[in-house]
């Protein structure tokens, strides 16, 4: 059956001399693989760009397997950004989406959030990585494991300033609990900048210019989110993009 989908092109890889396998994230079905036979022999205008949103026309496979490509019409061009950091941040967001195992009822929400993320990044001049963390936090919540930023892992109260986290639990702890706890190798105390970023994260879009990032704080916040993900999903979050983003800053 021929279907018309809205879909972001995540990845394209060569299948033969003239054909490609296209990985799309579609608003209707989530992740799908599409074989585009003969597409490389078509003219330049008919070649596709990664990260862009298309109206995709394709034939649904009878059983599990690849869809068959018919045509794609560009809806939004998300292949162009103000600078290479914003571009790498967009790529990392799509890499994250590509790793998710999505429940059918969440696909539309996550799709719309991804489109909003790419659109937003196209106007971000500074510190796009901050927008990535906001996105990662939203995706973490949507993946069903709670909000890493809201409650203390020990007293369970709402956190105003996240001070530290516990490696074994993957959870932040509040200032009061930090004062009562014994220092151990399980306890990771956040830098003042790391604390500030996590506290501001829900409204970080208003603070992009004033925050001075460095490689250490990027690794610190990446490590916290990776750990939270690993402890709560019981599987690691492997994003190549995370180390790429750190490389944009001096150590
Ligand atoms: Zn507490």
Descriptive notes:
Helix content is 36%, strand content 21%. With 251 residues, it is of the alpha+beta class. It has two domains: 2-76, Nucleic acid-binding proteins (OB fold (Dihydrolipoamide Acetyltransferase, E2P)); 87-246, de novo design (two linked rop proteins). The relative contact order is 0.12. It binds zinc ion. Zinc ion is lined by residues 152, 154-155, 157, 173-174, 176-177.
How do the strands and helices of this protein lay out in sequence?
Layout: E1 2-14, E2 20-26, E3 30-36, E4 53-59, E5 67-76, H1 84-99, H2 107-121, H3 128-145, E6 164-166, E7 171-173, H4 175-180, E8 187-189, H5 192-200, H6 215-233, H7 240-246
Parallel strand pairs: 3-5
Antiparallel strand pairs: 1-2, 1-4, 2-3, 4-5, 6-7, 6-8
Helix pairs in contact: 1-2, 1-3, 1-7, 2-3, 3-6, 6-7
How much of the sequence lies in strands comes to 15-25%
How far apart are the first and last residues' alpha carbons, in Å?
A: 53 Å
CATH 4th-level superfamily of the largest domain: Recombination protein O, C-terminal domain
Instruction: Please state the average pLDDT score.
Output: 94
Envelope shape: elongated
CATH architecture of the largest domain: Up-down Bundle
Q: What is the N-to-C order of secondary-structure elements (H for helix, E for strand)?
A: EEEEEHHHEEHEHHH
How many strand elements?
8
Radius of gyration: 20 Å
Number of domains: 2
Question: Portion of residues in helices?
Answer: 25-40%
> For the record, what CATH class of the largest domain applies?
Mainly Alpha
| pLDDT < 50 stretches | none
Widest sheet: strand ordering: 1-2-3-5-4
Q: Report the structural category.
A: alpha+beta
Task: Report the biggest beta sheet as strand number plus sense, adding barrel if it closes.
Answer: 5 strands, mixed, barrel
* CATH topology description of the largest domain: de novo design (two linked rop proteins)
Number of helices: 7
């Amino acid at each position: 059956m021929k279907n018309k989908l809205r879909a972001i092109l995540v990845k394209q890889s060569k299948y033969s001399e003239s054909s490609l396998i296209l990985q799309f994230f579609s608003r209707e079905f989530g992740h799908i693989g599409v074989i585009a036979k003969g597409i490389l022999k078509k003219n330049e205008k008919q070649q596709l760009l990664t990260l862009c949103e298309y109206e995709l026309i394709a034939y649904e496979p009878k059983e599990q397997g690849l869809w068959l490509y018919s045509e794609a019409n560009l809806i939004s061009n998300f292949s162009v950004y103000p600078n290479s950091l914003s571009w790498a941040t967009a790529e990392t967001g799509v890499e994250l989406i590509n790793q998710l195992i999505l429940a059918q009822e969440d696909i539309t929400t996550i799709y719309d959030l991804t489109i909003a993320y790419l659109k937003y990044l196209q106007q971000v001049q500074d510190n796009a990585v901050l927008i990535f963390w906001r996105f990662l936090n939203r995706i973490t919540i949507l993946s069903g494991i709670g909000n890493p930023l809201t409650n203390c892992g020990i007293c369970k109260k709402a956190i105003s300033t996240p001070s530290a986290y516990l490696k074994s639990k993957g959870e932040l702890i509040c200032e009061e609990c930090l004062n009562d706890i014994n220092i151990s190798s399980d306890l990771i105390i956040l830098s003042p900048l790391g604390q500030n970023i996590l506290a501001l994260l829900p409204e970080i879009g208003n603070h992009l210019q004033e925050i001075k990032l460095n490689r250490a704080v990027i690794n610190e916040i990446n490590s916290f989110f990776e750990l939270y993900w690993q402890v709560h999903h019981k599987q690691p979050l492997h994003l190549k993009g995370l180390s790429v983003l750190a490389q944009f800053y001096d150590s």
